[in-house]
Design brief:
The chain is α+β, with helices and mostly antiparallel strands and 215 residues long. The protein contains three helices and twelve strands.
C-alpha cells in the first residue's frame, strides 16, 4: 500500500513538472515586446523627421522673408511701370553695402502714415541738391533724363528745391502727377528704406528682373 502511494505521488509530481508551460509562455511574450518596442521606435523616428522638416521649412521661410521679403503693389503712383496686385521681391542686403542707387525702385516706410509702406523710385542721393522745375528734375543743376516717365508733373505744386543731407534720399513715383512722394513730404532718411525691388514675379507674364537705370 505504501508502495502504491509512493508511485502515485511520484507520477503526479512528474506530470506536473512536464505540463509546466512557463518556458514557452515567456518566450512568446519577449518576442511580442520586441516587436512593440521596434514599432514604437519607428514611430518616434518618423515624428522626429517630420518635426525636423517643419523646422527647416520655417527657418528657410523666415530667412527668406528677412533677407529678400516680398511685397504686393497697391495703388497707381508707380504707373505705367508698376500696377496694383503685382508682386515684387525686395533686396535688403543692398542697404548694408552703400544703399540704393539712382533709379532703383525701393520699398520704404511712409513719412506721412504710420505702419504704411510705399514703393517709389530713388531720384536724389545723399548730399545732392534736387530741383524740380516744370515737372523736370535737375540734380545739382543738371537735367536728369528719365526714360521711365511717360508724363511729367504739370502742377506747380511739384516744383521746388531740396538739399539732401548725408543720410537722405529723394524719392518720386513714376506717375508724377498722382504720387505722394518727396515733392510732398521731402527727402527721406536712409533708415526708412526697407530695400530695393529686384524682381517682379507676379503676374507670371510680367516677370521682370530690374536692371540698373542707365542715365
Amino acid at each position: 500500500m505504501d508502495d502504491w502511494h509512493d508511485d502515485y505521488y511520484a507520477e503526479h509530481e512528474t506530470s506536473t513538472v512536464e505540463q509546466d508551460p512557463a518556458p514557452v509562455f515567456y518566450a512568446d511574450d519577449a518576442d511580442q515586446t520586441d516587436q512593440h518596442t521596434e514599432k514604437s521606435s519607428q514611430f518616434v523616428n518618423w515624428i522626429k523627421e517630420i518635426i525636423q522638416l517643419i523646422l527647416i521649412v520655417v527657418v528657410v521661410r523666415v530667412g527668406m522673408d528677412t533677407v529678400i521679403p516680398r511685397y504686393i503693389v497697391d495703388g497707381a503712383s508707380m504707373q505705367p511701370n508698376f500696377h496694383t496686385s503685382e508682386r515684387v521681391i525686395v533686396d535688403r542686403v543692398s542697404m548694408l553695402f552703400g544703399g540704393p542707387s539712382r533709379g532703383d525702385v525701393v520699398v520704404l516706410e511712409s513719412p506721412a502714415e504710420a505702419d504704411e509702406l510705399l514703393i517709389k523710385r530713388v531720384i536724389g542721393l545723399p548730399g545732392e541738391t534736387i530741383m524740380i522745375q516744370d515737372g523736370r528734375v535737375y540734380v545739382d543743376g543738371s537735367l536728369l533724363e528719365e526714360p521711365y516717365i511717360s508724363e511729367f508733373c504739370a502742377y506747380k505744386s511739384c516744383n521746388g528745391i531740396w538739399e539732401l543731407s548725408s543720410d537722405q534720399y529723394f524719392v518720386l513715383g513714376d506717375n508724377r502727377s498722382h504720387s505722394l512722394d518727396s515733392h510732398s513730404f521731402g527727402p527721406v532718411a536712409e533708415s526708412s528704406i526697407v530695400g530695393v525691388a529686384r524682381v517682379r514675379y507676379w503676374p507670371l507674364h510680367e516677370i521682370t528682373i530690374f536692371e540698373p537705370v542707365d542715365y
